[in-house]
């Protein structure tokens, strides 16, 4: 599974995925009684866009291409599985969840724990917070510093209170 960013301003699945992707996952993780929830791309497109704000007149909240590409990605990453059925114009994929939401979060946790040692000491710097209480705080920056001519960019991850 590949996770390139975590948006810690969001909650739940929104930390890892975009809004339409969260709706896609929830649709196949829903309780469907005795049967396993399944859907093709068209059904996912319809269901997801019921809950998303349109981007404009005749412009759904999530494009058909976004739904198709996300379905393929979820299958490649082992979150979903699929079966192919013959249909007009070729074969169509019918997706179903391969793992539960709890199993997904276990994978995310394992991935984060695995990647933490890769953050080397030279990528962590401590800088004072620039405010009237600066002596009480430290800012820990976890990122590569990038040079842009005269400018330097760093990404601040955490500000902590000194004890």
According to CATH, the fold-level topology of the largest domain is Arc Repressor Mutant, subunit A
CATH C-level of the largest domain: Mainly Alpha
Radius of gyration: 21 Å
Number of domains: 2
Strand order of the largest sheet: 1-3-2
In terms of DSSP E residues, the strand content is 25-35%
Helix content: 25-40%
Structural class: alpha+beta
**Amino-to-carboxy terminus distance:** 38 Å
| Helix count from the secondary structure assignment | 4
Structure description:
- The protein has 163 residues and is α+β, with helices and mostly antiparallel strands.
- It has two domains: 105 residues, Arc Repressor Mutant, subunit A (Orthogonal Bundle); 41 residues, no CATH class.
- The chain is built from four helices and eight strands, in the order H-E-H-H-E-E-H-E-E-E-E-E.
- The strands form three sheets. The protein has a three-stranded antiparallel β-sheet. The chain has a three-stranded antiparallel β-sheet with strand order 4-5-8, with no helix packed on it. A two-stranded antiparallel sheet has the order 6-7.
- About 10% of the residues have low confidence.
Annotation keywords:
single chain; 163 residues; alpha+beta; Arc Repressor Mutant, subunit A; 2 domains; three-stranded antiparallel beta sheet; 31% helix; globular
């Amino acid at each position: 599974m590949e996770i390139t960013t975590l948006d810690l301003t969001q909650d739940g699945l929104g930390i890892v995925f975009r809004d339409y992707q969260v709706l896609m996952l929830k649709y196949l993780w829903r309780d469907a009684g005795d049967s396993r929830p399944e859907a093709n791309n068209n059904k996912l497109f319809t269901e997801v866009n019921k809950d998303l704000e349109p981007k404009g007149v005749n412009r759904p909240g999530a494009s058909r291409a976004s739904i198709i590409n996300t379905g393929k990605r979820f299958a490649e990453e082992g979150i979903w599985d699929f079966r192919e059925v013959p249909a007009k114009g070729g074969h169509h994929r019918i997706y179903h969840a391969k793992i539960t939401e709890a199993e997904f979060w276990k994978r995310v946790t394992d991935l984060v724990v695995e990647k933490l040692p890769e953050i080397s000491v030279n990528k962590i710097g401590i800088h004072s917070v620039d405010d009237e209480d600066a002596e009480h705080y430290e800012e820990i920056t976890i990122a590569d510093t990038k040079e842009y001519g005269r400018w330097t960019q760093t990404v601040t991850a955490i500000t902590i209170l000194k004890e």
